[in-house]
Design a protein that fits this description.
- This protein is α/β, with parallel strands linked by helices and 444 residues long.
- The chain has two domains: 128 residues, Orthogonal Bundle (N-utilizing Substance Protein B Homolog, Chain A), CATH 1.10.940; 278 residues, Vaccinia Virus protein VP39 (Rossmann fold).
- 47% of the residues lie in helices and 16% in strands.
- It has 21 helices and 14 strands.
- It has a seven-stranded mixed sheet with strand order 7-6-5-8-9-14-10, with helices on both faces. Strands 4-1-3-2-12 form a five-stranded antiparallel sheet. The chain has a two-stranded antiparallel sheet with strand order 11-13.
- Strand 2 and strand 3 form a beta hairpin.
- The longest helix has 21 residues.
- 44% of the residues are buried.
- Bound molecules: S-adenosylmethionine (SAM).
- S-adenosylmethionine binds next to helix 15.
């Protein structure tokens, strides 16, 4: 039986406020499909809801109530329910969450918003509503990307693509295609091991997923294994490995490498361990798991002791702002502060230095982040090379911007019927940055 709308709004608004506070919950498991839709659609209206609030209130109500307003703004546009039902149910949710006084405020703002007057249109055209980000974030993107900023805003507006990594593509590609076509899906074959499925759905509930034949991983996140050079017996460190995306890309593709997968977070390593059970039988190399902190000298010594004189290859997928994956996590621009970003950059520099210590001479370090900000990408690497005279830059993809629609994926690889314009919006890639540096002692 369906929940009453006020209940779904209340549950989802609480989840959204947690997301904005930067507290991750297990929403994938906890929310029903309807609540999940309200969650993402509400977050995509956060900028508009806060703009409406600024018009009518001197101070902002609690985040949960902003979330109720954001969800209501989506529902008013979506038109699945009547305006009367939306106002009535969202006011009820606000009352249950924060009492009558706040509910009266929600009622007032919704009654001013539902008729779509000129002030509503004016607010919907304000920058924070269009870009769905606070002004400091908008300025940062604008300053760095100049003419290309619109790519970022348009990609963030739509539901993210479902892109899959196929384990052992030569064995499983046709099986995967047949199964998905039988389910009525359309497929864009990006490369032999990468496909995008249209429309996206919960692939985790299928046997293809539970048997390890496919895993979810964005196209640009899978680029790593294309440009690195690996030989059997090489010692490889995935320095920030959890939940395991890069580890499994490496272990599925490369034979008999000595792979150490490390992460400071034991909780996140459990996710990697869980996927190891699912994918283990298909791996060409088995990762050894470690929970070391790359900012601690004693932990670094332990990590280095697994090798003779350092690692041949280190992949550092560093903690970052996530500015390249806002399409997947629309809360990101609202949950970060400029200060947090500065702290992250300092953390990245520190971890980069640690990985340099762990790398052997002639070894290669790949640095990547799912961020489009140059302070976390290109500038971070330029500063590093300036400080480390034995660092030599090698070719790597560099900055990959997020994208949406047909232009982001070659259409000739379509399997199944043609895509409608709406379906084309399910195509796209995340924003990413890759750099590759070789250690050349005696180079300077
Ligand atoms: C971007 S995520 C890694 C994603 C992963 N490579 C993948 O493909 O699934 C960054 C990771 O860095 C880890 N991390 C942050 N600080 C660290 C530190 N000081 N030492 C080791 N790992 C750290 C975080 O716990 C987080 O799991």
């Amino acid at each position: 039986m369906e929940n009453p709308l006020w209940y779904d709004v209340m549950v989802t608004a609480n989840e959204i406020s947690m997301g904005i506070r930067g507290k991750k919950t297990d929403r994938e498991i906890k929310l029903t499909p309807h609540q999940k839709n309200l969650y993402f659609s509400g977050l995509r209206k956060w900028g508009f809801a806060t703009t409406r609030l600024k018009r009518f209130c001197k101070s902002s109500p609690p985040l949960e109530i902003v979330a109720v307003l954001a969800i209501s703004c989506f529902l008013l546009l979506d038109k699945r329910y009547s305006k009367f039902t939306i106002v009535d149910q969202c006011v009820e949710a606000a009352k249950k969450m924060n009492g009558s006084k706040i509910a009266a405020l929600v009622n007032f703002i919704l009654r001013k918003t539902a008729p779509l007057g000129s002030d509503v249109i004016e607010d919907s055209e304000k920058e924070e509503s269009v870009c769905n980000a606070p002004s400091w974030w908008i300025n940062k993107v604008r300053h760095q990307l100049k003419m290309r900023e619109n790519l970022v805003w348009s990609a963030a507006k739509f539901q993210p693509p479902l892109t899959l990594r196929i384990s052992r593509p030569s064995e499983f590609l046709s099986l995967v295609e047949d199964n998905l076509l039988k389910m009525g899906k359309k497929i864009i074959k990006q490369e032999n091991s990468i496909i995008t499925v249209i429309p996206p759905f919960d692939i985790c509930k299928t046997e293809l997923f539970s048997k390890g034949i496919v895993s979810i991983q964005d196209y640009n996140a899978q680029k790593l294994v294309d440009f690195i050079k690996i030989k059997p017996n090489m010692s490889v460190l995935d320095a920030c490995a959890a939940p395991g995306g890069k580890t499994f890309s490496l272990a599925l593709k490369f034979d008999k490498i000595k792979l150490v997968s490390n992460d400071v977070s034991k909780k996140r390593l459990e996710l990697l361990e869980h996927d190891l059970l699912r994918l283990g039988h298909l791996l060409k190399s088995t990762p050894k798991l470690m929970a070391a902190d790359l900012t601690k000298d004693s932990d670094l010594k332990q990590l280095k002791s697994f090798t003779f004189d350092g690692y041949d290859l280190i992949v550092l997928d560093a903690p970052c702002s996530g500015s390249g994956v806002v399409r997947r996590h629309p809360e990101i621009p609202w949950s970060r502060t400029p200060r947090q970003l500065t702290n992250l950059q300092n953390q990245q520099s520190k971890i980069l230095e640690s990985c340099w210590y762990l790398l052997k001479n002639k070894g290669v370090l790949v640095y990547c982040v799912c961020s489009i900000f140059s302070d976390e990408g290109e500038n971070q690497i330029l500063n590093f090379i300036e400080k480390n005279k034995n660092a030599v830059r090698m070719t790597a993809p560099g900055l990959l911007l997020p994208s949406v629609g047909k232009s982001s994926s070659p259409y000739e690889f379509l399997v199944g019927a043609n895509l409608s314009r709406k379906e084309e919006l399910f195509l796209g890639k995340d924003g990413f940055f890759y750099a590759q540096i070789k250690k050349e002692d005696g180079h300077y």
